[in-house]
Design goal:
With about 425 residues, the chain is α/β, with parallel strands linked by helices. It has 10 helices and 13 strands.
């Protein structure tokens, strides 16, 4: 059964706990705490049977097996309303890809979202921090708000314990920013950070967040010093205005390369324009404009905007050039023949037709066998969209009309 499988897994992983006696203050200790509540079962890019939890597990497995820095110790906790699946700390050299993949397969979405028991488990579990291992980083990954139940709120006692252990807390919010005062207090007091990642869990973006969880204190401090030096050099450039001094009002939409190319993560007061719900700031309760999913561009208007106004693709009135280098019609001669054997019509059914002379039915039809007008010889053609490639060697035909462009991700300031 699944329960017996988890127990078997725990025994196998606990056998590796002997390496924990060698843990020292400078070691890389990272604990990944991943939400496995019901909402993590929503499908993402990859097919209807591929959900958020599946995607997150896949990226985590690949990272731990292939990208985890040498000398690292990794642990995991999967939670919904309680932390049911706990992977104790294990050294990189002890991680088995086959066993890890098998054990992760057993973790499935379901239940509510309760933060406190999961974080508490990381701090006190003997296989994790055991209430005494210092200098670790906890990566807390969730796609939903904390339950409003009192026992789910992070307590001051827990925050103090985290400070005592010099624990650094990083939160990765899937799809949107969630306001939780107790979690925000924990992050701020542990010198952590909040990061918003794409709702489809882009591999490169999630991997960059995972990498943050396995940095030593010395590496973090060194990186911070390097960043300060870079800022200092930039500030000394004549005429330079630092971005931090530029005011952008809430609701500002700007293009962004994304975390992979920009080498930074989306700040907590910005959100992707992907139609996700805004749960922070004055726009709370609205949805972000869905620009990224449908590849929309922006244009100005003088109209008052009480709601998002989208315009579907359209093609403006235009003309096509007619190419005619001169043409002719060939007619080898023809004739029209008609023989009239008519008589007055006194018996017609139509009273309006009576008395008129009509053919008796022995007339010959107009001859057309000699006309020989050949439309294929005219040399006329219209340059339409479907024929552009015939005349323009660099043209491209697509499903819409658009100028040359480059893909970016739109983001909106929410607070």
């Amino acid at each position: 059964t699944m329960e017996s499988g988890i127990k078997c897994w725990k025994i196998l992983w606990l056998l590796s706990l002997a390496v924990l006696v060698n843990l020292s203050e400078g070691d890389r200790i990272g604990v990944i705490v991943l939400d496995k509540s019901g909402s993590m079962g929503e499908p993402v890019c990859g097919g209807p049977h591929f959900n958020r939890l599946d995607k997150a597990k896949q990226v985590i497995k690949d990272y731990l097996v292939k990208e985890l820095p040498d000398g690292s110790f990794a642990g995991m906790v999967f939670f919904d309303s309680r932390p049911e699946d706990v992977f104790p700390l294990v050294a990189k050299d002890e991680i088995s890809e086959e066993r890890l993949e098998r054990d992760l397969r057993r973790v499935r979405p379901g239940g509510g979202t309760c933060f406190r028991p999961a974080i508490e488990r990381v701090i006190v579990d003997p296989g994790l921090l055991d209430g005494k291992r210092k200098g670790a980083t906890m990566l807390f990954v969730t796609d939903g708000e904390n339950s409003g139940a009192p026992w789910c709120e992070i307590t001051e006692e827990m925050i103090q314990k985290a400070e005592e252990l010099e624990l650094r807390v990083i939160e990765a919010e899937i799809g949107t920013h969630y306001e939780d005062p107790s979690l925000e207090k924990l992050i701020n007091r542990t010198n952590g950070e909040r990061i918003v990642i794409d709702k489809n869990i882009i591999k490169s973006e999630f991997e960059s967040v995972l990498h943050k969880a396995f940095k030593t204190r010395e590496e973090i401090e060194q990186k911070e010093e390097e960043r300060k030096e870079e800022i200092k050099k930039i500030d000394e450039i004549p005429g330079y205005v630092p971005f931090s001094s530029v005011y952008l009002p809430v609701g500002s939409i700007i293009p962004w390369l994304g975390g992979t190319l920009a080498k930074v993560n989306l700040p907590g007061n910005w959100q992707y324009c992907d139609g996700s719900e805004i749960i922070l700031g004055p726009m709370k309760g609205q949805k972000t404009p869905n620009l990224n999913e449908y590849g929309r561009f922006l244009r100005g208007t003088e109209e008052r905007l009480d709601e998002y106004m989208y315009q579907e693709a359209m093609l403006g009135d235009h003309e096509h050039e007619i190419y005619d280098p001169g043409h002719s019609h060939s007619d080898r001669g023809h004739s029209h023949s008609y023989e009239d054997y008519g008589k007055p019509n006194w018996e017609g059914d139509d009273s309006n037709d009576r008395g008129m002379v009509r053919p008796e039915g022995r007339s010959k039809r107009t001859g057309t066998s000699y006309a020989d007008i050949m439309s294929s010889k005219t040399g006329m053609r219209v340059k339409g969209a479907e024929q552009i490639n015939s005349y323009c060697s660099t043209s491209q035909i697509g499903q819409e009309t658009r100028p040359a462009n480059m893909l970016i991700r739109w983001i909106i300031k929410i607070k």
